[in-house]
Amino acid sequence: MASTIKDVAKMADVSISTVSRVINDSKPVSPEARRRVLHAIEVLDYRPNEVARSLVTKKSNLIGVIVDDIGSTYVSYVLRGVEEIGRMYNYDIILLSSYGDPEVEMKFSKLLFQKQVEGVIVISSTLNQKLMYKLEESKIPYANINRFYDIEEDLTVRINYEKVSSEMVEHIIENGHSNIASIAIRKDIDRTEEKYKVDGYESAMKNHGLSTRSLYTAGITEQDVLDIANEIDDAIENGTTAFFCSQDEIAVYLINYLVDRGIKVPDDISVTGFGGTGITNIYRPKLTTVKIPYYDIGAVAIRKILKVINKEEGLEERILLPVQILKRDSVKKLN
Amino acid sequence: MASTIKDVAKMADVSISTVSRVINDSKPVSPEARRRVLHAIEVLDYRPNEVARSLVTKKSNLIGVIVDDIGSTYVSYVLRGVEEIGRMYNYDIILLSSYGDPEVEMKFSKLLFQKQVEGVIVISSTLNQKLMYKLEESKIPYANINRFYDIEEDLTVRINYEKVSSEMVEHIIENGHSNIASIAIRKDIDRTEEKYKVDGYESAMKNHGLSTRSLYTAGITEQDVLDIANEIDDAIENGTTAFFCSQDEIAVYLINYLVDRGIKVPDDISVTGFGGTGITNIYRPKLTTVKIPYYDIGAVAIRKILKVINKEEGLEERILLPVQILKRDSVKKLN
DNA sequence: CTGTTAGCGCCTTCAT
DNA sequence: ATGAAGGCGCTAACAG
């Protein structure tokens, strides 16, 4: 059995209050007493029991994080930010992976409440409104981070997808392309970031008096891309020289498809993506893409929660994260 | 303020003992009392406070997981297994990411002890002996999962790298190759899985009377591979037609290097890897590689810990996980 | 500066 | 079958 505050008190020949005072540095303690306590702590290898401490202080220093799949790159990148900033403020992360099951997520939230977490962060690719309601009514601070859905009310951290999309399209245009198609995900597009990307694409094109061609996939799997092969072929036959894709996965599977058909990227066709995670550094050609600051998204989310917990006054500004376009090798300069 | 067991007792007009009995199903309670308690719980939306519960039962149902980088594919894949199996047994995961700093890891272990975790799992790419000692002397069950180091005493879960390496080399030989080189990581090779891989390669080659050529990198970054470009070129000039690589990253960067030099894979040169994570499905050509069961590695590790916690008698067998060779497109059949 | 006391919310004997 | 009482390890008044 680990030693307790009592053992330390006994050994140092003081009361447990005094021990508590030195470990918390809460009230003045005479140098002599402090010395003895410290010594006893050392000898007994005493470590305060956080569970007991939480019970009385009502602070668990725990943030619950519900994710849909810890194995996904998106989730793990966001988690980096959450974990590191949480740590800076002495908060630990309890991690729960739901694999996208909404019912499981409901159970998780209950579990987390019982564990007395002080905040909850949800990192997912799907939407679970029921979970949001439950978190809302729980009155504990929470943040919702979603890979696709970008909903005004839920917003925690946002990115100006429309603007950066326009910039990316400008970049493609500057490289001499004029027949540029976009590919985005159709599902729930009115509530996802995809809408903003397509809007950005279309407005940039219109600003240059160019006509648009917007293709849509069902998702980001290889099959989803192959399913619109006809439309891709069609675009190319009609002179499309560049594809502005709303996600790195789409871009990469598109390139795979093109290469398999003997079409070279970027020599014959240029392609851009959105995301900028590891794969885009390894894959050849190195993808020209928008680097989404996943780490910062996580960091800002937990920071916001901690602010609420600590009742920091921070004016509730909407945080808009800057993004960066990585100009690499998948866009060719036409002459 | 959330309602407590007292509130429930008052509302149901019973003692807190009775409430405790129904929520834990520990002792018989009259149907009538039970009904009233359940009703009160429902109305008050009562959820037992796990912190208080842990304090008295001395069970936190928490497993601490120290990782070097939550953002790494390796870590997140292993975590999937840890999390899911932990969940099955009602254990939650506290996640700490050290970014490889040994001192930080020491602090983490202390932190975890204070949080009263019942077990600790370390998932890393580096070795922290001090941490292992500390965990060992803590007397709480722990498991050490390492991406590279494969040390007899520390073993938690193991893989027969030598055997599968031989099989992979056999596969390459069956495809008509005879001049095959290996590439592995030199660092600490006597204590890493790399040794077994090279051994497997060499023994397969010798069994076929073929001569070996073993190259070594400093690590798995792109630069590490480029640093041995001369040796790679040299091997090719000397007739090498296939490279058996000890890690997917090495294989992929090697292919990048070769392709950049106008050498086609697998048409001119065949390449195999080790790992089988997501990237190898997306990358072209699809890599022929050994699929390491990361999920199972994590699952077995936590299962082992839970066995100790629950004092299950399970004979302390050494678990050897089966692996699978993914025969895909990066090895060409020579005629 | 220090010790005593009263809980935090819950489980668990021990009586009844 | 049920309630009263004690205590898990710790913090926070309250006296002194």
From TrEMBL, chains A, B:
> Which PROSITE patterns does this UniProt record tie to the protein?
HTH_LACI_1 (PS00356), HTH_LACI_2 (PS50932)
The protein's matches in InterPro entries, at most eight in alphabetical order, are given as: HTH_LacI, LacI/GalR-like_sensor, Lambda_DNA-bd_dom_sf, Peripla_BP_I
Supply the alphabetized keyword list.
DNA-binding, Transcription, Transcription regulation
Specify whether Nucleus is a keyword of the entry. no
Q: Which domain of life is it from?
A: Bacteria
Which GO molecular function terms does the record list? DNA-binding transcription factor activity; transcription cis-regulatory region binding
All copies of the HTH lacI-type domain together span 3-57
**Keyword Transferase (UniProt):** no
Q: Could you identify this protein by its name?
A: LacI family transcriptional regulator
